[in-house]
Amino acid sequence: MIFYSWNVNGVRAASGKTDFYPFLQRGADIVALQETKATPAQLSPELLNPGDYLSYWSSSVSRKGYSGVAVYALQEPLHVSRELPDPKWASEGRLIMAEYPRFYFFCVYFPNGQKDEERLAYKLGYYDAFLEYAEEARKKKPIVVCGDFNTAHREMDLARPRENAETSGFLPIERAWLDKFVARGYVDAFRHYRGDSQGDYTWWSYRANARQNNVGWRIDYFFVSAELRPNVRRAWIEPQVHGSDHCPIGLELTF
To answer: What phi and psi, each to the nearest 5 degrees, are found at residue 98?
Structure first.
């Protein structure tokens, strides 16, 4: 199975760029989108069901035009859940879980903590609530989770670690949560497949020609629970695909 994940920074805007529909036409089994910034009622039929895809959407109810995630799937899931069970974390359109016979698939847009201390605390609380939810699901079958985690894990995951040591997205407390996530048995598929490669990023600021100069961050991930480690055939990043300040990432699993 081929999976893609992409923070599109507005699905309506991204769909107007030349790379969007050719990207979907590759025919991946599942395509996960983050930061869609739209409700299904605002979308064209072409965006709701491009080609042979079924689509599932979760939109923010607390703030219009904000956040949001979507999953395009060729195969209908056994079950789809939206948002975390606790209402405290369930108003911003940040999660879709699709159940398949062999695994649970999570598309998540984790909060950004750069605004202030309150949002950083919300981000960290969301991380913990998600991990608890994933661990419960994992008791039944393995986990595939993808999305924008809004944190670079290690120094090799951003171009300028020293300059960003006190910036949310690379704070020790945020990185420590990713350490905990890995310690619980979740495998960073890209690092598993590519090792400690350098200069591989998934997000670039729109400022100062950051993408052209590859001054970026790797904050978008595929993780699989350790049971699926042997199933990882390849994992990759596609910086050549434009349409957002993020680029798509891919995963191939064999069963």
So the answer is: -115, 125
Q: How many domains does the chain have?
A: 1
Q: What is the 3-state secondary structure (H, E, C) of 111-172?
A: CCCCCCHHHHHHHHHHHHHHHHHHHHHHCCCCEEEEEECCCCCCHHHECCCCCCCCCCCCCH
Task: Give residue-wise pLDDT tens across range 87-111.
Answer: 999 999 999 999 999 999 999 999 9
- The answer to whether the Cα torsion of 154, 155, 156, 160 is positive or negative is positive
Boundaries of domain holding 220: 2-253
- Residue 148 known to be catalytic: yes
Reported as a pLDDT band with limits 50, 70 and 90, residue 34 is very high
pTM: 0.97
Please identify which of the residues 148, 157, 200, 220 carries the catalytic annotation.
148
- What is the CATH number for 210? 3.60.10.10
